[in-house]
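Problem 12. The chain below contains 473 residues. Write out its predicted structure in token notation.
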Amino acid sequence: SKLTRSRSRRDPDEMWQAELKQMEERLRLQMLTATRPYDAWTSLKYMALLSAFGVCAALCYPLLWVGMAVLCFMPSSQLYAPPLVVLAALGTVFGPGMLTIYYVNAYLGVPLTDLGVSFIFAILSLAAVTAAEKYQVKKESDRTSGTCGRQLLSLWKYSITPIVALAFVLQFGWPGALLGATSFVLVLKTFRAGLLKLCWAGCPSPGEQMRVLLSGDSFPPKLDGVQNFARNTIQALVRDGHKVHVFCSNGSPTTHLAPENYGATVTRGPGVEVQPKHKITLPSPHFLVALMRFKPHIIQFFDFTPCAIFVVPFLWWLGIPVVISHHSRIDLYAAYVPGFIGDYSPQVVRAACEIVFPLVTGHLLIDGSQKDQSWFQGHANTRFWATGCDLEFFHPSKASRETRSICSNGRPDLPLVVFVGRLSPEKQVDKLIDLVKVTNLPGEPELCRFAIIGHGDSWESIHQEIGNRPDVY
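Solution.
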């Protein structure tokens, strides 16, 4: 009882700081292991972990939605919103699958062994075809292979594999089972072709005005670096005469800096607010409505959002080109999930990356170091999207002696090194401490002054180490 009373008297800030330290340790561990190449055993472990979370999410599906509804009225606990959204989406995927297996087994009389054989065949076949496709890409890069091999792999992947897998499930003789499975696959392909015609404008001809659909969670009123990328992309595409449509959940047509102000049209779907002015867009039928209304040539997702995780497989099935620009390390953000779920969140995210990334037409990397991350290795169409600077906004004519004197703590004659940004561990801002200490050594002339501008979870630790030094503003 004394222990309970002492715990109840603990300062909530102290509890949060202890939780934050645990998450930072988890973050550092993830940063050390993220560049290790995948091996078969690691992949299987992460896939099993993802499946376990999916099954648990399906069993607790109603509770997850209740939890998200409760969080809308508890701003102090909204750090739990992102994992709840992902778990709810996993439950949406695994739940119908589990119900289908139960119905097929209980009411159609299909043994679980046949279902298992069908599933194992499909997985092994897809894995073999994926490996062969990577080998094919390597041969094509060496100019030693034509298109015949690629066509055969596509036929096996998209036609033979589903037909044989379905034939294992059908409970009659093999010739009839193959015929029935073939008929079902043909009907499904016909439905897909009709839906694709409603949702896709096809490949644009040279000089044709492109229709680009952009999606993500960083649209106004949320303001951050990704939002700047999105706004500049909209402006550049519209300036060049292309049509732009945005699918998101943030803001309204009257929001300051809304996409409508720059010539884009917008479809807003449901989302969950995880921070003030920041919503996570949910995968919903609104996205399909946006596809049918706009009929894009290509789709770009700004970051690997929860919506992208579950929409990309659908777009891959349809055959619509998709590009993801990677602005954030979502595996590092996953380390910031409180509680025991955070111990497994990065692994679940990495499993999702390994499943979804091969389905994407191309990846745009913002940071050169991203190429070393294991989930981008082996993808043929991975390119860098170079960042830039607004030369009108950041111009030498706007230099201010007074501001330089303030930021240099009264030494405007010395070189001034400035950091501007969010002070968070995933940005490795703790290296600023070492940089300051090794640059201006005690007892030696100062080489420069430092100005650190920003706030975040790492602000307090940085301020404790170097905040009282005269060479730091």
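Discussion. The longest strand covers residues 211-216. Students who got a different answer should revisit the alignment rule from Section 12.3.
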